[in-house]
């Protein structure tokens, strides 16, 4: 069961005294049996008899609900495809894996950014964060890199399609792990996401890569395990 929040158009009164208003409604997706475009309400909007403030280009959808032997119809704001996508998005599993790629790129920054920058500074695409990242059940060595990822389309467009933040990140990583045409080596090594933060126009990520000294990133990965300090001094002899 999944409840989807929509804006319902409902009427009060009859005939020439009929008026319209808007209220929030939650609909159980298990009870939806039919959706169709409602042209009549668009005509009422064009005549100026609907709720004030609505765009004249607004579309409406009539939803038929069934609960055992009872059926009910409600009118909601939104085109039929938009309403369908809302139900589809709400019924997805939160961490459902998807097979897709989202075209993206790393944003450039200087050697001392975001602390400060200067003119004609050299730019790279990321910065090594420290030592190796422990790999569970794997002998591979991984290094952590801080990057800022921008997508080809605005992030809000992917979210409006019903994708979760986790799915967007997963699709971006899939794109970054694709070898360019006629090349043998991945440009950034084989990457995976450790954690991320969504910002207005980019995604701040901490990536893991198996490339310790990639030319695209500032610094170099340490051979020490991240978070574990190496003991100093001469080892003591056992007595």
Proportion in helices: 10-25%
Strand count:
11
Number of domains in the coordinates?
Answer: 2
Distinct helical segment count: 4
Mean pLDDT: 82
Oligomer: single chain
Given helix and strand content, the structural type is alpha+beta
Strand content: 25-35%
Helix-strand sequence: EEEHEEHEEEHHEEE
Per the principal axes of the C-alpha atoms, what is the gross shape? elongated
Explain this structure.
This protein is α+β, with helices and mostly antiparallel strands. The chain has 2 domains: 3-90, Roll (PH-domain like), CATH 2.30.29; 104-218, no CATH class. Helix content is 15%, strand content 33%.
Notable characteristics:
239 residues; alpha+beta; PH-domain like; 5-stranded antiparallel β-sheet; 11 strands; elongated
SSE topology sketch:
Layout: E1 3-12, E2 19-28, E3 32-37, H1 39-46, E4 60-67, E5 70-77, H2 80-90, E6 104-106, E7 126-133, E8 142-151, H3 155-160, H4 165-176, E9 191-198, E10 203-209, E11 217-218
Parallel strand pairs: 7-11
Antiparallel strand pairs: 1-2, 1-5, 3-4, 4-5, 6-8, 7-8, 8-10, 9-10
């Amino acid at each position: 069961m999944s409840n989807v929040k929509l804006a319902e158009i409902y009427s009060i009164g009859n005939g020439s005294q009929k008026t319209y208003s808007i209220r929030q409604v939650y609909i159980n997706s298990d009870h939806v049996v039919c959706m169709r475009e409602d042209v009549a309400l668009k005509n009422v909007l064009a005549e100026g008899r609907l709720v004030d403030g609505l765009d004249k280009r607004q579309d409406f959808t009539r939803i038929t609900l069934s609960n055992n032997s009872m059926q009910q119809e409600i009118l909601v704001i939104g085109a039929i495809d938009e309403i369908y996508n809302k139900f589809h998005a709400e019924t997805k599993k939160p961490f459902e894996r998807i097979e897709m790629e989202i075209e993206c790129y790393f944003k450039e920054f200087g050697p001392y950014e975001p602390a400060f920058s200067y003119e004609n500074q050299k730019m790279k695409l990321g910065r090594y964060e420290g030592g190796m990242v422990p790999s569970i059940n794997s002998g591979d060595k991984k290094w952590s890199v801080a990057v800022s990822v921008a997508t080809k389309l605005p992030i809000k467009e992917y979210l409006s399609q019903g994708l979760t933040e986790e799915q967007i990140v997963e699709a971006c990583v899939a794109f970054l792990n694709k070898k360019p045409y006629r090349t043998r080596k991945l440009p950034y090594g084989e990457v995976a996401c450790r954690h991320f933060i969504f910002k207005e126009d980019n995604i701040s990520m901490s990536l893991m890569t198996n490339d310790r000294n990639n030319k695209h990133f500032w610094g170099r990965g340490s051979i020490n395990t991240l978070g574990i300090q190496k003991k100093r001094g001469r080892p003591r002899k056992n007595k």
